[in-house]
């Protein structure tokens, strides 16, 4: 068979077909013009976006400084180095970092933060899936912390009431009994020393907030068996998060398809997570149990919240943010062990408040001018939730730190540098000195202190009331029973039982 002639035949058939399809001669130029216009508009938009991204200059036309490497992984694993390199290349000015294909502006000073939030705090969009890519999207991409605008407000409408100060306080008695048991079990993790023991608190601190927040969110449905199931889900979740951060190929859709084992893990987690939570909601309904997660699910019943938004936000609450609280508990114990005077003063304050009202410490918990509150705040100054905050974008063009920043530029905050800046906190900024908050009202620290957010978003953390309660109750319970002592050249802490 003559392949060339076949080809010829085919082409002629195609030509005949096309000639039948041809539009009337008058319509042709207008279709072409329309297509050309659409293409031109698209190209212009892409170029404008690229130009806007590329050209950030100050008032003299000097371009902003930029770190030369991809900081996507380093932001999590080597945050201190990025912070130091940023300071070395840009001094006190903002600078740019690269996160895969996107670029992010890093803010380091209270003035930058003031300018960033000025006038439009509520309208800062988040970059798609926080610039973390496809694999992240599948596990946390629809969580409240990853989105903005109307969907953010709608999700918060269902979650906020369950995390209010009042509702957090109702979990107080259950928290106290879990914490009491945790303190009782502490010696098991340590090595006996005299009448006490010594241990690295990081280990036992790891799962206490996890257990307390699970208790809070699942209410009367929560049980030891459920907690065991959560712990095994956490093991799988850790592997997936590891991939989210370190396996940069999984940021692309195509690689997600090719990497079958990563996809399998993700599918397994997502289906187990859904079943775990749906079983809880159904049990609460069937047995008429008090369960915040069930009440939040009414948003899905009403078709306002997507199941994905419900599940991803629960994931963010339990697996992502609770780690932050464990790190902070560890920081608090380390600093108290190294500062016997602060520890003793705090113990005396606790005893005083307890003697005033032995059965109800909720007043004490809610007071902001106590040493207990100052200690927790100073802990957060040293141990912010993220070394670099999650990105959110400028909504309009702005001037920040002398640079013209185009609209829609992703922005992150170097929280460690901000919280330790001697210009804001004084020469003793690297000293653990809770009393500084006595001299410096919290209202004055809004833009210099990354705590539960910063600037106009300073209280945005959904879990702030629950987290605050966890830290305060845990410190009270431990300090009433033990004095803490730093072990020289060792991360361990010695726990000595107090005389009755
Ligand atoms: C009980 C533990 C905690 C839970 C359940 C929790 C939950 C959350 C959630 C869901 C968000 C996303 C909020 C949103 O964008 O709408 C968030 C944001 C945040 N949380 Fe927490 N959190 C906890 C503990 C903490 C602690 C201890 C800190 C500080 C050391 C902290 C600092 C932050 C910060 C800085 C943000 C980002 C706020 C922003 O986007 O401006 N969180 N938290």
TrEMBL record:
SUPFAM superfamilies per UniProt = Cytochrome P450 (SSF48264)
Domain of life, per UniProt, equals Eukaryota
Residues engaged in binding heme:
461
Please give one Gene Ontology molecular function term for this protein.
oxidoreductase activity, acting on paired donors, with incorporation or reduction of molecular oxygen
Family matches, as Pfam families: p450
Q: Which CDD domains match?
A: CYP_GliC-like
Tell me the GO BP annotations in alphabetical order.
Answer: secondary metabolite biosynthetic process
Q: Which UniProt keywords apply?
A: Heme, Iron, Metal-binding, Monooxygenase, Oxidoreductase
Q: Which cofactor does it need?
A: heme
- Fetch the InterPro entries from UniProt: Cyt_P450, Cyt_P450_E_grp-I, Cyt_P450_sf, Cytochrome_P450_monoxygenase
Q: Which family does it belong to?
A: Belongs to the cytochrome P450 family.
The record's section on PANTHER family has: CYTOCHROME P450 (PTHR24305), CYTOCHROME P450 MONOOXYGENASE APDB-RELATED (PTHR24305:SF235)
* Name of the protein: Cytochrome P450
Organism name: Aspergillus avenaceus
